[in-house]
Amino acid sequence: MHILKSVINILLVFLLSCSEYGYYQKKGKKLLKNYKGNYSIVISKKLFMLFVVERNGIVATYTIGYGLNPDKKPKLYANDNRTPEGLYHITQILSMDAPKNSHAYKQLSEMNKVYFKAKDGHYKFGHPNVDLGDNAYGPRFFSISYPNTNDRIRYEKAKKSGVLPQNNGKVPSIGGGIAIHGNNDPDSIGNLSSSGCIRMYNDDIIELEQYIQVGTPVLILAD
After folding, report:
1. CB contact burial 123-133 (16+ within 10 A = b; e otherwise)
2. I want to staple 140 with a disulfide (CB 3.0 to 4.6 A). Which of 31, 51, 198, 205 is the partner?
3. Measured distance CA(162)–CA(177) in Å, rounded
4. Nearest CA among 80, 151, 141 for reference residue 106
5. How far apart, in whole angstroms, are the C-alpha atoms of residue 115 and residue 111?
6. Using one digit for the tens of pLDDT, what is the confidence trace for 20-76?
């Protein structure tokens, strides 16, 4: 049985390396050259997919949803409904299955109590008049290190150029709080649907946790 599984894994790695996914496999392997952990995460906005990569190749793939801004450009400022692009890393792991007295549980539990309203721009996918409601983050929340240095450079350049929107003479901040997390709206997965975070099916985000630790590199690509 173990021999058969090994053969299947070898064949899978070979097929992935020969397919379009080979591009993402190479990207993920490159990240592991400077990282001591076992896995890297590569996200393709074009394919609406998240790839888990180890040194032997891709070991898991998942469908995602991300920022609902139709221009699909990288995040520039707070509340632009865009998902960032670039190299980041996991900074925090929150879990509804962590011990009840832990920070990881308490923080996510409080976040999931927040009720999001359609009038504020948070609605069920395809139903702009239906509130997104509570439990919006699902069972896991993996924070990433947005903004990075390149994000800050782009933001400051845009600020100096006067291209950021203004409200009473003030421009928005660069924003933050970007994460890979679960959801309460499964129809949104595979679509432009979030305020900027990467959404996953709840079963998938739970499964993803086995590959995640603080420091795991996360590469988000437009292609």
Report:
1. bbbeeeeeebb
2. 205
3. 24
4. 141
5. 9
6. 789 999 999 999 999 999 999 999 999 999 999 999 999 999 999 999 999 999 999
Structure tokens at 134: 């509570």
Residue-level pLDDT at 169:
83
Q: In this predicted model, what pLDDT tens digit does every residue of 161-201 receive, in sequence order?
A: 999 999 888 999 999 999 999 999 999 999 999 999 999 99
* List of domains in the chain: 2-221 (2.40.440.10)
Taken as a whole, the chain contains a residue count of: 223
CA–CA separation, 134 and 119 (whole Å)? 15
Please, what's the largest Cα pairwise distance for the chain?
A: 67
Tell me the C-alpha distance between 60 and 20, whole Å. Answer: 15
Tokens at 22, concatenated:
């080979």
Contact status, residue 73 vs residue 28, Cβ threshold 8 Å: no
DSSP characters over the chain: -HHHHHHHHHHHHHHHHHSTTHHHHHHHHHHHTT--SS-EEEEETTTTEEEEEETTEEEEEEEEEEE--TT-PPP-STTS-----EEEEEEEEEETTS-TTSHHHHHHHHHHHPPB-GGGT-EETTEEEEE-BS-TTTTEEEEE--S-HHHHHHHHHHHHHT-S--BTTB--------EEE--S-GGGTTSEEESSSEEE-HHHHHHHGGG--TT-EEEEE--
CA 78/CA 121 separation, integer angstroms: 14
CA atoms within 13 A on the CB side of 101: 0
